[in-house]
Model the fold of this input.
Amino acid sequence: MGSHHSHEQKDGEGGSGFNTPRGGSRRGATPRGSAGDTEKPEKPQPTSMVPVEKLGKLLAQRSQKEDGVSGVTEKSFTKYLFPMYPELARQFYRWVHRAGKCRNQHIPLSVFRTHCEKILGMIDDNAIIETYVKMFATEADENTMEPSGLRSLLYTSYKLSMDHYPEGPQTCLMINRTLSSVVNGCFNNKDAHSVGFVVRWLNEHCHRLVFPVHRYCVHMLATRHRDLEAAVESPCSGAGLELATPVLERSPWPAAPHAKDALLPLSVAWLLAGAAPPLYSRPLQALGGGALASAAWLARLVCAVPVHWVPLYASGDHGLGANRFLHHTLAYRGPTLVLIAAQEALVVVASPQEWRESHQYWGGPDAALVQLLPTFAVLERGPKLLYLNTSIRGYPLGLRVGADPRKPALSVAAGFDALTLRGVPFAVSSIEVWGCGDQASRETQLEIKKWQVREAERQSKVKLSAADWIDHPDRYLLELAGRTQYNTSAS
Done:
């Protein structure tokens, strides 16, 4: 099954952004152009990946010792391979058992090796998504996915991202609401969908949320044998995948990212990081050589909550209105996310570049309109979606988003107090703006604001000549107040 998300490998990276580890080169192979081309080739040897071979033997040994079974049991698989994620272990084991058409409850060593090598060898994005959707499909039919299965898959991805923060595991009180929004967006009150439908929906809306699960599985399959060989059997062992998920910067206003009433709680930030174009999750900065390659690899490792996202504007603290929005948002020369809460709806306007006022639609190919609540969906994305006008006469006033100027998907009124989303009117309750550029973007904006303040102060201290002061209206007001002498030095 093809996918427009799939792409050719570059610089050793596959579609999922993870280099497939192999234990060594194939035995019996000789380089081209060497003397070995004229010699009699050696007898072909099995080309199994060494890490999987070792892992399978170690799990089989523990299954034999603890369960008296010749093969790999679900108990040993869960206890020694995925000790921190029993649900992932159960679904993974069930997928291997079903794909291998095992007759007994345990998995033969050859079946375990074959399907784990298949996981390690995946590089196509669409194949990865389809595999894990099937992994979490219903037990009765691997081609049918229920809402509970998709929810379990997404929650596993969320847990993997949150558990590997440098400061320790993170949590969010809004995670159930966030997951329900995504599941409702996919199933729309249906009891089940085909696996193909769910794969297409994920590809269209939030396909990158699946990749953390795959990368974690690849990591464990490729490295877990080291801990088992060293007899590290603690229930907490094996969790040493340093995903280095960066922490969202704390907000300076009361509605902090972790607060209950914030528009961008941690789970919503995680969802946006996986659904918005990669531009918003990677700061635009000049890196060179190995630093650039390392940053790109790290950005693709998990659906990270980007550390470089900084709060620019919050209506609850700065006031709700077009002038307040412009004051805090203009001059930020980087991508931004504008979150607009209107009654039960929450939408995000993703701008890939600096906001500006114009009577024409503008924006690069990474511009997007995303609905987060009550159901999640990427409504529109593409170039020339954005429109902002608060002063140009003869043209519509307010903020608009949509490919069709005559019927935009989102229309915010000039006063920023009401909006229309796909023809349905709402009253705006709050707005937040988050900057997604590098630190230099924020520093440049602050410098511009300081310059504007200095210019305003300078222009307010204009000296008047004596002739101008005689006819100045302020002189008349001072005389009415009883002050007729203006040279304080003479008094």
